[in-house]
Amino acid sequence: MDRSAEFRKWKAQCLSKADLSRKGSVDEDVVELVQFLNMRDQFFTTSSCAGRILLLDRAVRSTHGLEVPLSHKGKLMVTEEYIDFLLNVANQKMEENKKRIERFYNCLQHALERETMTNLHPKIKEKNNSSYIHKKKRNPEKTRAQCITKESDEELENDDDDDLGINVTIFPEDY
């Protein structure tokens, strides 16, 4: 069996299995993205969490999270004010995550549209596959590629730029 047929078989098997996540369904914020990915022949995802996307067998994890114990042996170890502060920070990070998902989805659509156009127009493909490649010097101020969403042209903050320098996950006591 060729690799393409093996992949199609694997994809069909994986997508036909029941969703075993705790929630039992795809998060509302990523339903459209998951459907878009799974309609493509070359890849698929079974991820259901808006905070994490697993494409095939590789996960990209960021420092864009919170992990902190709040209690120990039934005793609350922090103030209510601190809990409110953590909730505010966590909500800000969740909003940022939604923006990142939207930007990823828009960039993915754009990239796949360009790939389709290149495949449909051989002259573009020839130009892109030229034996002469001119490399530009990397601009240190612009080291990562950007794809701007339709709704907003503001750049999302970098993972490494946490003002607070904290990484916290809130676990319930009976976790």
UniProtKB/TrEMBL annotation:
EC category name: transferase
S-adenosyl-L-methionine listed as a keyword: yes
Comp. bias (Acidic residues): 152-164
One Pfam short name: TYW3
Record function comment: Probable S-adenosyl-L-methionine-dependent methyltransferase that acts as a component of the wybutosine biosynthesis pathway. Wybutosine is a hyper modified guanosine with a tricyclic base found at the 3'-position adjacent to the anticodon of eukaryotic phenylalanine tRNA.
EC number(s) reported in the record: 2.1.1.282
Listed InterPro entries: tRNA_yW-synthesising, tRNA_yW-synthesising-like_sf
Keyword tags: Methyltransferase, S-adenosyl-L-methionine, Transferase, tRNA processing
Domain tRNA wybutosine-synthesizing protein: residue ranges: 10-56, 59-109
Organism: Homo sapiens (Human)
UniProt region (Disordered), positions on chain: 136-165
PANTHER family noted in UniProt: TRNA WYBUTOSINE-SYNTHESIZING PROTEIN 3
Catalytic activity: 4-demethyl-7-[(3S)-3-amino-3-carboxypropyl]wyosine(37) in tRNA(Phe) + S-adenosyl-L-methionine = 7-[(3S)-3-amino-3-carboxypropyl]wyosine(37) in tRNA(Phe) + S-adenosyl-L-homocysteine + H(+)
Family named by the database record: Belongs to the TYW3 family.
GO biological process, any: tRNA processing
GO function terms (MF aspect): methyltransferase activity
Pathway: tRNA modification; wybutosine-tRNA(Phe) biosynthesis
The protein, known as: tRNA wybutosine-synthesizing protein 3 homolog
